[in-house]
Amino acid sequence: MRPEKILELVKILESHEIDEIEISRWGQRIRIAKKSNAQAPAEVEITPAPHKAKKIQQQLAETVTFESKPAVTEEFNHKGVEVKSPIVGTFYRAPAPDAESYVNIGDSVAVGQPLCIIEAMKIMNVIEAEIPGKVVKILVENTQPVEYNQTLFIIEKE
Amino acid sequence: MIKKLLIANRGEIALRVIRACKELNIPTVAVYSVADALSLHVRFADEAVCIGPADSKNSYLKMAQIISAAEVTNADAIHPGYGFLAENADFAQMCEDNEIIFVGPKPIAIRTMGDKAQARETVKKAGVPIIPGSETVVKNSEEIKRFAEIHGYPIILKASAGGGGRGMRIVRQIAELENAYSNAREEAQKAFGNSDLYVEKLIEDARHIEVQIIGDNYGNIIHLGERECSIQRRHQKLIEESPSPVVDAELREKLGKIAIRAAKAVKYTSAGTIEFLMDKKRNFYFMEMNTRIQVEHPVTEMVTGIDLVKEQIRLARGEKIPKWMKKFNLRGHAIECRINAENPAKNFLPSPGKIQVFHAPGGPGTRMDTHVYAGYEIPSHYDSLLGKLITHGKDRMEAIIRMERALDETIVEGVPTTIPFHKAILKNEAFRTGDFNIAFLNNFKF
Prior knowledge:
By secondary structure, chain A is mostly beta strands. Chain A has one helix at 3-15, and strands at 20-25, 28-33, 72-75, 80-84, 89-92, 108-109, 114-120, 123-128, 133-138, 145-146, 151-157. In chain A, strand 1 and strand 2 (28-33) form a beta hairpin. The longest helix of chain A is centred in the N-terminal third of the chain and has 13 residues, at 3-15. Helices cover 33% and strands 25% of the residues of chain B. Classes of the chains: A mainly beta, B alpha+beta. The A-B interface holds A 36, 51-53, 55-59, 61-62, 64, 66, 87-90, 120-121, 145-150 and B 30, 32, 34-35, 37-38, 42-43, 47-54, 58-59, 64-65, 67-69, 71-73, 98, 375.
């Protein structure tokens, strides 16, 4: 590989949040890596990847209590709070197939108000809001499977 | 048929099951706790579902979460691995109730063998030798005396409520009996608030010999030879091998027959292990049955050439034990060392942390089953097993030398491991000549 090409790769590496690049072509292989810092950046990826473990889970959740119905919530940014699934199951936005959704984007919710249902082992678990606020994002499609700790909603505190 | 299999476990065994599934062309689902998001089983499975927080009580042991994970991914079978829910009859039942194939025995077999007293009773009826003991609590020293007259000294008194050596006394001759009896009662009372004792014949200098068996859904059960697991530290096996240095073809046949009898007593339908204690005169006694795949299964795989995990899955989907398997041949000798993240210089203190550098050994007759890699953070929530190193040689000596070579090649930097301890054991003369028993590590100087 030509040196200019390598320099180009180095630039890509530096200007983006990538730790390493590996390219193999015509039997040649080049790998460029940043010096690994002891700590990997603790970032939370919030794209909903249904039961595909491609994302880097934040270890934070260890402190989250895990029991019964209330959703797990976590600070998202200065205003938004992530509502995470406390269980594995199937996500439903409404209590019945032809019923109105519990919440829509823009709705204000109060503490204890149902947000969605997660069906696990034929049991409908109603997930309730733990904080009051406005629903700004719904990250899971109706009837999609969700895993533990997966972000379902983002609620903006009022 | 199994269309998709979920592995209800973590670590190296989860990886082991994924490998078996890949070879059987069965898609896999890994489940993991938030502490295991970067674990290899999550990476190598076709799908992965996060099932809970780091503590296993709320993740790997949470039955409802695991069944839900199977439901949302349409997995129609669950392999429990070892530990966690592997010997939980309720979980096996729950799988059955949800029309999920549990890769293991039927719930009733797990339940029966999981209860010590019931297991003893069941196999005794089937003609399996058990350690002679008083079936119930002894009422007085006279009763013990009568027991010893029948079965001979030494005997051991044990607290019926107890464990951990308290309320325990070894009696070698009749003169010691009265004293030991009152001392043990007193100690048991203090420790457990209950002075009840029972008595057992003491099997001295015993070896731990176990027999691998497999059964299908059609009443066929075969054995696949024995494993020697006498190198233990506090009942934790460290080195296992197959065949045992003291078991010959004739004894193997006998052990196998008895083991099959025990398995037949519970109509066993999967891979399982019957554990025996064997004394110096090569009398053996049933200890317990493990109704699951065992950590040390690779040594049997190496000498028989049979992939036990794959067989387990095949049996679970209703296949028969192939005829050729009944006439298995043992080829050479295999040894396994369990490499734990423990510090042998500090009384085996568990040492979670980050593995900075990792290099697995290779070469002929060398197998490493591990879930770790460079940069892997060992979570503090689970057991300390980092991997299992298995070597296979044409005979025991070659396997030992190969193991020493492979241990030399193994590089783990960042956390202390049991590798130096293994090296020391392998050098030991008694180990090399095969002259050891379950007390070996009690007197071993490291």
